[in-house]
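testing teh design pipeline on a random one, pls ignore if ur not involved
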C-alpha cells in the first residue's frame, strides 16, 4: 500500500511537470501527463486508473495536440491572413522551436507576416496576419494548460475517490 502512495505522489509530481511543460513547446506537456497516468495504471494494476479512463484521456490528449496546430492557422486567418499566412504561422511555429524561448512568440508572427508578404499582401495586412498567428499560439497554450490541469485533477479524483 505504501508503494502505491509513493507511485501516486510521483505521478502527480510528473503530471505537474507536464502542466509546466505546456508553457514550453519543447517539452511535451500533455503526453507527459498521459504517460504518468499510464505508468501509475501499470503500478496499481489498472484497478483505479482503468483502461477506459486511459483511452478517454489519450483521445483528449490527441485531440488537443491536433487542435494546437490548427489554432495557429486559425489565429492568422481570423486576423485576415490568406492560405499563405496560415501556413506561415504553422511553419513559423515549428521553426520557432529551434529559437526558444523567443521563437515561441516570434515564429508564428514572422511566419504569417513573411508568407503574407510573399503572397503579395500589403505590409499592414501582413502585420495583422502575423499578430493573428501569435494570438493563435497564445490561445493554444491556454487550452493546453487547462487540459493538462483538467487531466491531472481527473486523475487525482479517480484515484482518491
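output:
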Amino acid at each position: 500500500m505504501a508503494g502505491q502512495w509513493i507511485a501516486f505522489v510521483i505521478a502527480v509530481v510528473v503530471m505537474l511537470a507536464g502542466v509546466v511543460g505546456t508553457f514550453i513547446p519543447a517539452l511535451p506537456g500533455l503526453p507527459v501527463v498521459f504517460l504518468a497516468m499510464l505508468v501509475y495504471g501499470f503500478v496499481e494494476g489498472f484497478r483505479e486508473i482503468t483502461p477506459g479512463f486511459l483511452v478517454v484521456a489519450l483521445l483528449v490528449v490527441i485531440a488537443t495536440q491536433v487542435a494546437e496546430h490548427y489554432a495557429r492557422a486559425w489565429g492568422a486567418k481570423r486576423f485576415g491572413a490568406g492560405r499563405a499566412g496560415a501556413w506561415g504561422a504553422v511553419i513559423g511555429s515549428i521553426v520557432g522551436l529551434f529559437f526558444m524561448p523567443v521563437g515561441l512568440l516570434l515564429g508564428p508572427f514572422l511566419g504569417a507576416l513573411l508568407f503574407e508578404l510573399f503572397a503579395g499582401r500589403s505590409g499592414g495586412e501582413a502585420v495583422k496576419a502575423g499578430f493573428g498567428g501569435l494570438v493563435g499560439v497564445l490561445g493554444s497554450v491556454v487550452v493546453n494548460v487547462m487540459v493538462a490541469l483538467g487531466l491531472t485533477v481527473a486523475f487525482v479524483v479517480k484515484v482518491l475517490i
